[in-house]
Design a protein that fits this description.
Layout (H helix, E strand, L loop, with lengths): L4 E2 L2 H7 L8 H14 L4 E7 L5 E6 L6 H6 L5 E2 L20 H8 L1 E7 L6 E6 L6 E5 L4 E7 L6 H6 L3 H18 L4 E6 L2 E6 L5 H9 L1 H6 L1 E6 L3 E7 L12 E5 L2 E3 L2 H11 L11 E7 L4 E2 L10 E2 L2 H16 L8 H4 L4 H6 L26 E6 L3 E6 L2 E6 H13 L6 E11 L2 H9 L1 H7 L2 E4 L4 E8 L8 H14 L6 H16 L9 H12 L14 E5 H7 L13
Parallel strand pairs: 2-9, 13-15
Antiparallel strand pairs: 1-4, 2-3, 3-8, 5-6, 5-8, 6-7, 9-10, 11-12, 12-15, 13-14, 16-17, 18-19, 19-20, 20-24, 21-23, 22-23
Helix pairs in contact: 2-6, 9-10, 13-17, 15-17, 16-17
Bound molecules: adenosine-5'-diphosphate and magnesium ion (MG).
Length: about 575
């Protein structure tokens, strides 16, 4: 780690937060941040008397040199940033250089620390008034911080503390949050010799979930793994059948920083939509990763809230990532399926989308009046199709929807093919030629018949019926190239077929920007109405979203259940 140095007054005035230490959790949080920033792989926490007598954190991180150790307890001394300009690229949890001095101002702090390159370490003690004292001491590599007699000179804060049991519970919650955000670190927490948590390091979030939520719940949680160009969302969420009265079990971390985010909670709410009973909340553990330049971490004194610079994109990303997983569950896992007599429930739920489930009790057919289909209304920006039913609005992404339909048709068991009168002659590169030769089986399964036609050249005799009018020489070559790049020599013929189908669907589908005829719009909308349209295209983008009546009512603050006369 870099050397600790004092921040210049301009920087310190722009980041100063007066690091509020208001209860034992605030101390523990700062010590955990420091231990993690030091690159520790194991952290041991010990509490006595709910943290009033002792909060001790031992880590095996990089430790501090004697000079750094005595600087660390002074205000605005940090090794993590040099100036305010470093904030946009910050990768550490701490950056203000205020935590240790703020703790030292309200408690006795004792630090024992040793970097790997030193044969021995130092002991640094601070008393609220005196300058820190430093002594050489033998100790393992890493840092041990002991915070004792918290608030013994600040009776107001001491009186404001909750019961010992409650303070311990708050600290357990905090450590659970950190444990989820940092599964690669072993965390051990005990209180007066009693073990409260032991989370061994793992690369598998599911194992962490089992430690924090218990085996049973963890086994039912649905994994989330979503990635766009500049945003990643990883973690797990509960199925709609599992919900809680509060949002307390919604854990979120952004670039490994545990945070509370109303934005994430709102996006989750939107993603589950009517799948959850009103006023109930899912159990979630979600990590967001994005470039630190798209975040402001300097908005909250305790750094437990952050600001996303592109809130709408984050909201949409989270909604999409979670919606894809929870909304495509079979209706059998929905609560009203388990309890069919919840009449009150049914009155306030709306037809949710259960694509692909022909027997779904609520489906989009009920969005239309008896016998009538959902009506395409218009195309927006030559990219989206808007359609209306009696129970809401559907918006389709024309490319993703068409792509998804083509992919499904190509992946049906027995696709039919059309023989070309002329045949296409394809001049391929050597690698493309070898690839096509190797994939004869997968290509035949899709409905292609290719014959060798001279050096690195093939003649396309038949093509899949669904692609007949859409295939051109150019998009066929592009699709082969894309599928070839995705496949490895280990890909099975079935995987190779999937890659080919996905690439062909993508290359031949209607594109964003293409103007559509009413008939083209109608046929895509018809696929939604008849539940033939998967929720996401083969690349994972949603094909359509629904704005149900209930959703519209919520947005216009016409709360369901309020008699119509109250909201005219
Ligand atoms: P900040 O974390 O904002 O830099 P702190 O007051 O929490 O400020 O810590 C001051 C400095 O002390 C850190 O920048 C870091 O260099 C060092 N430090 C604190 N705790 C540890 C630790 N557990 N291991 C190694 N270095 C530490
Ligand atoms: Mg810190």
């Amino acid at each position: 780690m870099a050397r600790i140095q004092r921040l210049d007054p301009t920087t310190s005035s722009r980041i100063a937060a007066g690091e509020v230490i208001e209860r034992p959790t605030s101390v523990l949080k700062e010590l955990l941040d420091n231990a993690l920033d030091a690159g520790s792989t194991r952290i041991d926490i010990e509490l006595v008397n709910g943290g009033r007598r002792l909060i001790q954190v031992i880590d095996n991180g990089c430790g501090m040199s004697p000079e750094d150790a005595s600087l660390a307890l002074q205000r605005f001394t940090t090794s993590k940033i040099h100036s305010i300009d470093d904030l946009p690229t910050l990768t550490t949890l701490g950056f203000r250089g205020e935590a240790l001095p703020s703790i030292a101002a309200v408690a006795e702090v004792e630090m024992v620390t040793r970097p790997a390159e030193q044969p021995e370490g130092v002991l640094v003690r601070s008393r609220a008034s005196d300058a820190p004292q430093v002594h050489a001491i033998g100790c393992p590599v890493g840092t041990r911080v002991r915070v004792q007699r918290l608030f013994s000179h600040v009776p107001v804060r001491l009186r404001a503390l909750k019961s010992v049991a409650r303070e311990v519970q708050l600290m357990q919650e905090l450590v659970a949050h950190y444990a989820l955000a940092h599964p690669q670190v072993t965390l051990h927490m005990q209180c007066e010799g009693r073990r409260l948590l032991f989370a061994p390091a793992t690369t598998d979030l599911r194992q962490r979930l089992a430690v924090i939520f218990g085996q049973e719940l963890a086994a039912q949680m649905l994994p989330i793994s979503w990635q766009s160009l500049d945003l990643g969302i990883q973690g797990a969420v509960s199925p709609p059948s599992i919900h809680r009265a509060t949002r307390q079990r919604q854990y979120c971390w952004v670039n490994s920083r545990p945070v509370r985010s109303p934005l994430v909670s709102a996006a989750l709410e939107r993603a589950y939509g009517a799948l959850l009973p009103p006023g109930r909340h899912p159990v979630t553990a979600l990590g967001v990763t994005l470039s630190p330049t798209l975040l402001d971490v300097n908005i909250h004194p305790r750094k437990t809230e952050i600001k996303f610079l592109h809130e709408r994109a984050i909201f949409a990303g989270i909604q999409e990532a979670v919606e894809m997983v929870v909304q495509r569950l079979a209706p059998a896992t929905l609560p009203w399926e388990e309890a069919p007599d919840t009449a009150a429930w049914q009155a306030i739920t709306v037809p949710a989308l259960h694509v692909g489930e022909a027997e779904a009790p609520y489906d989009l057919r009920s969005m239309a009046p008896e016998g009538a289909a959902v009506q395409p209304l218009t195309q927006i920006g030559n990219t989206f199709i808007v359609a209306a039913g009696t129970q809401g609005l559907i918006v389709l992404d024309q490319h993703a929807a068409h792509e998804s339909l083509l992919y499904d048709q190509l992946m049906t068991a027995e696709p039919t093919s059309v023989e070309l009168a002329e045949g296409f002659v394809l001049h391929l590169s050597v690698s493309q030629y070898n690839y096509v030769q190797r994939l004869q089986v997968s290509l035949a399964a899709l409905g292609f018949q290719l014959e060798p036609f001279g050096k690195e050249t093939v003649l396309v005799r038949t093509v899949p019926t669904v692609l007949h009018t859409l295939l051109r020489l150019g998009n066929l070559l592009e699709a082969f190239q894309e599928a070839m790049q995705r496949s490895t020599s280990q890909s099975s013929p079935e995987e190779a077929r999937e890659h080919l189908a996905a690439a062909l669907a993508c290359r031949t589908a209607i594109r964003a920007g293409d103007p559509l005829s009413p008939a083209q719009m109608a046929s895509l909308v018809e696929a939604v109405t008849h539940q033939r349209l998967a929720y996401a295209c083969p690349h994972g983008r949603p094909t359509h979203v629904t704005l149900s009546l209930a959703e519209l009512e919520r947005r216009f603050l016409r709360l369901t259940g309020v008699p119509p006369s109250a909201t005219p």
